[in-house]
Specification:
Blueprint lengths: L2 H14 L2 H8 L3 H15 L4 E3 L4 E3 L1 H28 L4 E7 L1 H8 L3 H7 L3 E7 L13 E5 L7 E9 L1 E5 L1 H7 L5 H7 L1 E5 L10 E5 L2 E5 L2 E6 L2 H9 L5 E4 L4 H6 L3 E2 L9 E8 L8
Parallel strand pairs: 3-4, 3-5, 8-11
Antiparallel strand pairs: 1-2, 5-14, 6-14, 7-12, 7-13, 9-10
Helix pairs in contact: 1-2, 1-3, 1-4, 2-3
């Protein structure tokens, strides 16, 4: 029996909750995963999982084994990674999730330069702002704007997005320009953004002289995708807060016009997010 493979299979079954998702994540037949688990149980002379038709439950002995096995696998992976780093460039598959705006405006345009440096990396890029099950879907990491709020994930800050408040000429012609935040809240329409995971609408937050003011304005449309948010702003459906990297051409050509420039907006941090129990390889 390949004990390391058996431990990897056992850990993934525990993480995902059943053999089918574990086999998909490991990219091996379900029968192979089953045989590895049975071989590990026979080797250890104990039952590690209680199996039902719908799910598996870890036994007391299984909980002890998965804790120790996770540490062992992490140490082996770290050893492999350190040796690979010393002898060659990173290689293999990297499964990444991110919002469409990050993919289209930031990541994909930079991939040619990336592949000149790392030609042996293959990227599977999932595009969207949905909730990700990192373990069941075998996702290595995600690029996210703002904090995730999920305490089970590790977030490493890698950059930030400058934000700007703006509106299309079509909107300004119809509704004018708000002179104050009170006018923005009561007399105007905003393009609102709600989080796909929680359905929570994000308020407009402004800073001035050390004070922060949150505005929740009326809206004609609220969306949960940055590209659609930009399109709604360009169509004159409301005042929007947009990342500057999305709109330099629109500001230069007058397709969008900055408003309330005297009020600052806190930059939005960008994080690489990954599960706390996943070892990071060279990739």
């Amino acid at each position: 029996m390949d004990q390391l493979s058996a431990m990897r299979a056992f850990i993934r079954v525990v993480e995902t909750g059943n053999f089918t998702r574990a086999s998909d994540a490991l990219r091996m037949p379900k029968a192979t995963v089953t045989n590895l688990i049975q071989g590990l149980e026979a080797h250890l002379h104990t039952q590690l999982l209680n199996r039902t038709t719908r799910r598996v439950v870890v036994t007391t002995d299984g909980a002890l084994v998965v804790e120790r096995a996770t540490r062992i696998i992490a140490e082996v992976d770290e050893l492999d990674g350190s040796l690979s780093n010393a002898t060659g460039s990173p290689s293999g598959r990297l499964r990444v999730e991110m919002a469409g705006a990050f993919a289209d405006w930031i990541v994909i345009p930079a991939l040619c330069d990336f592949y000149r440096k790392y030609p042996d990396i293959r990227i599977d890029l999932g595009v969207g702002d949905r909730t990700v099950d990192y373990l069941a879907e075998n996702v290595d990491c995600a690029l996210r704007g703002g904090s995730s709020g999920d305490q089970s994930l590790i977030a490493r800050r890698v950059s930030e997005m400058g934000m700007i408040t703006c509106a299309a000429p079509l909107y300004i012609e119809k509704f004018g320009v708000p002179e104050t935040l009170s006018a923005l809240e009561t007399d105007h329409y905003c393009v609102n953004y709600f989080q796909a995971q929680t359905n929570r609408t994000l308020p407009f937050e402004f800073r001035k002289d050390g004070a922060t003011v949150a505005v929740t304005g009326r809206y004609m449309i609220s969306v949960n995708d940055a590209r659609s948010y930009l399109t709604a702003a360009q169509a004159g459906l409301g005042i929007a807060r947009l990342p500057y990297f999305l709109i330099p051409d629109d500001l230069r050509t007058g397709k969008l016009i900055q408003i309330l420039p005297e009020w600052d907006i806190e930059p939005v941090p960008l994080y690489i997010v990954y599960p706390s129990n996943r070892h990071l390889s060279n990739k």
